[in-house]
Amino acid sequence: MSKVIKGGTVVTADHSFKADVLIEGETIAAIGQNLSGDEVIDATGCYVMPGGIDPHTHPAMPFMGTTSADTNYSATRAALAGGTTTIVDFCLPDPGQSLLEALEIWDRKSVSSHCDYSYHMAITWWSEQVWREMAEVVDRGINTFKYFMAYKGALMVNDDEMYQSFLRCAEIGAMPLVHAENGDVVARLQQKYMDKGVTGPEAHAFSRPPEVEGEAANRAIMIADMAGVPVYIVHVSCEPAHEAIRRARVNGNRVYGEPLIQHLTLDDSEYLHQDWDYAARRVMSPPFRDRKHQDSLWAGLQSGSLQVVATDHCAFTTEQKQFGREDFRKIPNGTGGLEERLPVLWTRGVRTGRLTMNEFVAVTSTNIAKILNIFPRKGAIMVGADADIVVWDPEAKKTISAATQFSAIDYSVFEGVEVSGLPRLTISRGEVCFADGEMKAREGRGKFLRRPPFPAVHHALSSWKALQTPQPVERRKENMPIGV
Ligand code: URP
Ligand code: ZN
Ligand code: ZN
Ligand code: ZN
Description:
The chain has one domain: TIM Barrel (Alpha-Beta Barrel), CATH 3.20.20. Helix content is 33%, strand content 21%. The chain is built from 15 helices and 20 strands. Helix 3 packs parallel to helix 4, helix 4 crosses helix 7 and helix 7 runs parallel beside helix 8. The mean pLDDT is 97. The site of one zinc ion has 4 residues, from loops.
């Protein structure tokens, strides 16, 4: 049973052209003129683009005494409704827990997925066992490890653990991802505001200024350079972190930066809202920033110093947010965005002229596939690639509302935002999963996506490191002090 998408304009990260796309089974079989297939999908007036890849999501994340309310079931439905066909989740071992045991728990959690998924493995503690198991994790198709420099007393790791573990990444062809915030300083600032009686959600933002992020991003980048690994900084929210990334890249370091759709479009005035619930729903780390930081993030996407746009989708209900009623430190950190990422980026990015359509495809899909080493199976409209395709209607409009979303929570941080540009169809491995507002995907159809280790960048970095390593001076005996 083949399908042919006819009459649309194919938009890739490189160029745009009129062509039909033939799908055989789960794969793109041909791209060209006047193709025919068993079933015809009319894409007149639409763009035919690679399905979105969200490199940063937390379905059913156990965190801060609760579990994020969008499960793998609901988060993957939200993804497909928003034009995203692959998500990457974070496997989080408890301190002391085997990485492989945590992986089994995550595999059980993922069985309800409607779209393809992959994992990053978090390093939440350090031991000889973790060192050993990291190689096994890579063998199982996970090539990225995640480090939290914040969340002191919970997920946070120290510099020694990061350095040792980054060295291990270099050895086994893996890449570290870093949540960059100085957790020690954050903890002190949080205590300062609590002592002053500032207990509301605004204090969440006050206690995490851009400097804590800039400092940590710079530290992670320097540690990665010393260990000889590339590094990926998640949820880059501000100019100081972006500046550290930009500077490192100009110096030749392989550093990647991921802004979120939230930080690109929402600002810190949200925390000053009179309604406690309204403000608490927007609590995430790093917090939304002053508008001037948004300009920096957009500039990064335009110039290439930032490469991808993610969501960090980690959705808690209003009731869960209320755990922090008396103490902002207990408000579960996280916001949603899986369903909104592409439409909001299109509206605020492509429609305004900040991004071209091709840049849009690059930052929502192709760059991510390349950085995570799944290109061109994912992130490409190419013969032989998985048929993960969005038929995008640039003229379709809607006003974002929690009343109509697929996410399981009772609000949206994008409530009331008018978008123009929406998926008409989302196709995942050849199957029409979402069409004209209707979910067609079957629970459990999503497959785990293996990501092989990174031979090219690591080989280049290790060759260069070996050449640069300081060498001991071989001294002849007559040149040594007498008696040595
Ligand atoms: O506030 C956030 N970002 N919650 C999810 C966990 C994380 O730090 O990415
Ligand atoms: Zn984080
Ligand atoms: Zn994270
Ligand atoms: Zn996250």
